[in-house]
Amino acid sequence: MNAKLAVGLVLAHAVVIQTITFGMRPTLSYAVLDAGGSQALLGVLVAAFAVPALLLALPAGHIIDRTGERASLIAGAAALIAAAALALFGGGSVAVLLLATMFLGVGQLLSVIGEQAIVANTTSRGQFDSKFGHFTFASSLGQTAGPLLLALPGGTLETPPLALIFTVCGALSVVLLGISFFVSSSAKVPVEGERLRMLPAVASLLRTKGLIRALLAGSMVLASVDLFLAYLPALGHERGIAAGLVSAMLVARSLLSMFSRLFLGPMVRVLGRRRVMVWSIALSAAALLLFALPLHVSLLLLLASIYGFAIGTCQPITMSWIAELADPGTRGLAMSLRLASNRLGQTLLPTALGALSAVAGVAGVFLGTGIMLAGAAWSGAAVGQAAGSEPEGVPDGRTTGM
């Protein structure tokens, strides 16, 4: 397959899967409430989406390493079609909506691990940062487009047009299935010994010098984004900041994160991966620590922009580092291990730091999150000492189309 076409298919796949996910998740919440479910059930809905990733991530990654990525992409798209169909024809049953959410979680999991494994397995050393930067930019486009489905016409003042959104997401899932059939799996790398079995292969990966530090840094970075999104409105409410200005801060964070990912490759080439990773996380930590101070709203908007630009580089750079630390033939498992670690961090860390709000107010959450990111910067520095086993730009025998 033409290299540019292969790249385009994977990036298109990333845009579509994130559009479906970020369109369906809030719509399912509306559907549960519309069906008479309580607000407490929304927490169960979150768990129904997250639990499949924690349970199935490692087996999925191991199977991808053995059978190739395309089967995972096809299975993921099929699960998304099932999720949309259940939501659309479930008769407004809360139990069916929970089942649809589980299928959505499984479909998103299989699709994302397959995409990341393709990027990792078809990129030569020295190009990981640039390719993962482009990949996460495409994912961000989908994450921006998905919530726009809530604005489709036909709903009420309180509820968006549920059936229309589920229909659109179902149609997009069929498109995703079509794209998946055209995506070619990367070349298989033969493995032997303990790497043929999942648990010994996971243990071998975790013994890789620097990998645990990279996983910790990535999970703390993503948890900080969740905390920022959840607690910035509370900070605005506490300080009397208009909702429109809070929205502007959130938009600035999102746009600057997308923007920074386009230039990750050049930044790494000029400054070096370790320096970019450590200083971007440290800059993110400093921005959040300053949010705890009673600053003018114009300075808070500037800090949100700085945080967005800096934090936007962290996710793709931890992806690229884990891909480089893992040996060929285990990168699908490494990506799934990263995803499971991130989901665990996104579950436990916000809960722990959110408890600070009861003691120190919302400012305490930003203070605690900034300190957490300082720890992530330390983890990133340690990874930097362990990585880079080959000079940048030296291929390792794989294709360079992605």
From TrEMBL:
Membrane topology note: Multi-pass membrane protein
TM region positions: 39-59, 71-89, 95-120, 132-152, 164-189, 210-234, 240-264, 276-293, 299-326, 347-374
Stored InterPro entries: MFS (IPR011701), MFS_dom (IPR020846), MFS_trans_sf (IPR036259), Sugar_transport-like (IPR052528), Tet-R_TetA/multi-R_MdtG-like (IPR001958)
Keyword Magnesium: no
Compartments (UniProt record): Cell membrane
Keyword presence, Transferase: no
Pfam families, alphabetized: MFS_1 (PF07690)
Record PROSITE patterns: MFS
Keyword entries, A-Z: Membrane, Transmembrane, Transmembrane helix
Domain called Major facilitator superfamily (MFS) profile: residue spans: 1-387
Highest rank taxon of the organism: Bacteria
Listed Gene3D superfamilies: MFS general substrate transporter like domains (1.20.1250.20)
Protein name, as recorded: MFS family permease
Organism: Arthrobacter stackebrandtii
Lineage of the organism: Bacteria, Bacillati, Actinomycetota, Actinomycetes, Micrococcales
